[in-house]
């Protein structure tokens, strides 16, 4: 008997439990349909989403170019926040020779990128176990990101082995056909053209550098228009670098123009100040022809598309004109509703005094020109001078780097658009 009652009770209990469960289950399904946020699955998902995924990437960022910018853009896409480690001057000197750009300038440039959330100065050249722990525990990093080019330590081990073992490593594809080595080559070419007769060491360095890399150098004839870049600009890349934001109805639009060749910390600082004077910063980038006409046939070092990408990567920039006119016309001011035209005090020698045309005559007559004291005394020529004065160290560096880059490109295969 006792067992019969017990059986009855347990049967009833089971039935109630089953029906209850079914009702509860159905109500979750129904509720979810009406009110998706209430689904327990989503609540769990939301809680996870609350803590942003933090990704880390490091680098020297010496002579930063749009290839670096693109790598950081790709890294940022693998998480919600990008934290960038910038290697110290000392570690660069030990590993690659003295840097062209001191740490504080490299920090300025990396921090100004639109995809960078935080910057860590004096990051180690190679990630140690201790530093990796620090990244995970103190900086709350979820993943360490690196390009698909191998990073081998002097002892022959993989620099990211530890992160890989911990399952906290993600890789991006190196896509840009440009490298610091290319850019140094272009600068040396420009220096050779001007000084090879009185300074044979540059000429020999140039020959040495270019050997086997680009036959065009040895053609000799084509001269200043020779470019080493493998970079093929696509509309997709420009879109990826662009802002979706458009100027609001009452936005105060500030315009600044220039060559922005070898984009550097001086450019970043003047753009930051210019942006601070309005709500929307429009940057006019002069054509290669305009730059050559004003600075000489050996300039610009970077072509119009390359210069445009570097400027677009800067967080203070809202839009660029790819190939802006030298003179600012009334029509341009009206078309873009420009409220203020600014330019810095630090410019290439004679940039604005070459001929009698004052490019700012129209905006000046409208009283909408403001001259900004350039915060940093750096020009493209400063950068070129730094590199040339360091050329012995660079010669050694280029020999080594050129070889490893050649190997990388030889092994390179199809890469998707990202
Ligand atoms: C043009 O810019 C001014 C600010 O300088 C702003 O008040 C005005 O609304 C803008 N015009 C248009 C059509 O957006």
TrEMBL record:
Residue ranges with Polar residues bias: 197-212
Record bears the keyword Phosphoprotein: no
One CC-aspect GO term: cytoplasm
Keywords attached to this entry: Lipid biosynthesis, Lipid metabolism, Membrane, Nucleotidyltransferase, Phospholipid biosynthesis, Phospholipid metabolism, Transferase, Transmembrane, Transmembrane helix
EC number: 2.7.7.14
A Pfam family recorded for this sequence: CTP_transf_like
UniProt xrefs under InterPro entries: CCT, Cyt_trans-like, Ect1/PCYT2, Rossmann-like_a/b/a_fold
An individual GO BP term: phosphatidylethanolamine biosynthetic process
UniProt pathway: Lipid metabolism; Phospholipid metabolism; phosphatidylethanolamine biosynthesis; phosphatidylethanolamine from ethanolamine: step 2/3
One Gene Ontology molecular-function label: ethanolamine-phosphate cytidylyltransferase activity
Comp. bias (Basic and acidic residues): 394-410
Cleaved signal peptide residues: none
The UniProt record lists the keyword DNA-binding: no
Top EC group: transferase
Transmembrane segments: 12-35
NCBIfam families (alphabetical): cyt_tran_rel
PANTHER family: ETHANOLAMINE-PHOSPHATE CYTIDYLYLTRANSFERASE
UniProt protein name: Ethanolamine-phosphate cytidylyltransferase
